[in-house]
Amino acid sequence: MQKKKTFGEYIRKLREEGGLPIRKIAAELDIDPSTLSKIERNERSANKDLIKNIAKIFKVSENELLLYYYSDKIVYELRDEDIGIEALKVAEQRIKYIRKIRK
Prior knowledge:
This protein is mainly α.
């Protein structure tokens, strides 16, 4: 599944598809509507607790949201690097190695 949207764009899409006003979702998340608006515009980052609550509200997988969240973080760090794709490949190998030695 390709995920071209950012985390914020995906949250906004979920909210708009549900016909829900930003103030209602913000109230359910116990955050200010301006904070949620900034998250939707990718001007502010969410945390894991907020992501867990967003998943519950919209009845989507927490892992689905985490894929958007972490991919945004990675893209932000590597977007201007010529070796960004190579760094991702090395990171993937390192993750596999670390998981293997932990077992």
